[in-house]
Amino acid sequence: MQIVADENIALLNEFFGHFGELRCYAGRQLSAAQVKSADVLLVRSVTPVNAALLQDSSVCFVGSATIGFDHMDQTWLAEQKITVRTAPACNAQSVVEYVFAALAYVSKTKKISLQNKVLGVVGLGNVGSLLARLAQKLGFEVIFYYPFTHHADIQQVELADLLQQADVVSCHTPLTTTGTYSSYHLLNAHNLPLLKSGAILLNAGRGAAIDNQALLDFITLNPKHLGALILDVWENEPLPNRCLAHKTDLITPHIAGYSLEGKWRGTEMIYSALCEFLHQAPQHQLADFLPPLSQSLSWPLLASLWQNYAHLLQSIYPIQHDDHAFRKTLDIVTDNERASAFDALRKNYWPRRECSAFRLNVAPVADIAQLKYLGFKIII
């Protein structure tokens, strides 16, 4: 069996080496010639998977170590009877921790109180629903816009109402370009002015869910309207709008879901899917490779659950370092070099751990049931 894979997928040799020949290439430049003789293709979201790539190949299984389908021509793949599997929710916890780390950072640096504020979640899939549940535990009032689902415990509103009511707008919608509820440029020149004055706008879903040029025009004309702007995803990656990036309070190169656990979990999920496709029992699992628990932390004993959580997140994930590293690449002159720098930041991303990798020492009087929602290993 020949497997062609994106070289940036974690633990390729460990999970897939025993199946046969493993060939690894840069995912963004993957060509039809490179996959022509492959039986299995393993990709991330940067590789368009369609007829142009696979028409003359022998690929019968495609595994994507990511949560979405927007890089795949699902209709064509189904017509060709090519089995497709993704890794739903593999990095949901990573993205949620990124969101709260980012909010903790801008709250501190811009002196914005987030106590008892309204969080508006745009997109209530695996990431959005996990974010909403934890936000409620942390004291946020949560509302959401997502026309494809209902939730008994979270108030559903129209997008215009969400933009007008929310103190924080966090975007986590998948990217769709057709249909009644297309998410392409969901936030645009027409509705960006509806954002509540002083609101924080964050996008860690898909870059094109926000019209980047319209957003740049809006914040240029209204520089004090937003309390803070946080962007992890961009239109035209790996060449995001540098003018927009310079005007954004916190920028990162599409790494919200790049915790070590999030990346490795994605690999494990497509490995398990391939084993099922081949009618083979899995030989490995994520626990076989995860490093031991990291250092112990102490509960800070601040005034509120949110303040304590924010303090801990800042200690285990200094998100400003990701911002600083990305900003250094913005003024690279040539497009090829700037694009390469963007991809290099992702390829060589540091081994960020999720809260589950840390022991948390707490006082006996602490509400243990409440603390378990934060993900730490609790030690009393």
CATH superfamily of the largest domain: NAD(P)-binding Rossmann-like Domain
Instruction: Tell me the total number of β-strands.
Output: 15
Binned strand content:
5-15%
What's the shape?
globular
Description:
Strands 8-7-6-9-10-11-12 form a 7-stranded parallel beta sheet, with helices on both faces. Helix 9 (242-246) links the parallel strand 11 (228-231) and strand 12 (250-251). Helix 5 crosses helix 6 (126-137) and helix 5 (92-109) crosses helix 11 (305-316). With 380 residues, it is an alpha/beta fold. The longest helix is centred in the N-terminal third of the chain and has 18 residues, at 92-109. The protein has helices spanning 12-16, 32-35, 51-54, 74-79, 92-109, 126-137, 159-165, 212-221, 242-246, 260-277, 305-316, 320-327, 335-347, 368-371; strands at 2-6, 21-25, 40-43, 61-64, 83-85, 118-122, 141-145, 155-156, 168-171, 200-203, 228-231, 250-251, 296-298, 359-361, 377-379. It folds into 3 domains: 2-86 and 259-288, Rossmann fold, CATH 3.40.50.720; 92-251, Rossmann fold; 296-379, 2-Layer Sandwich (Ribosomal Protein S8, Chain: A, domain 1), CATH 3.30.1370. The chain starts with a strand and ends with a strand. The protein is globular and about 60 Å long.
Which short descriptors sum up this protein?
380 residues; Rossmann fold; Ribosomal Protein S8, Chain: A, domain 1; 7-stranded parallel beta sheet; 5-stranded parallel beta sheet; 33% helix; 15% strand
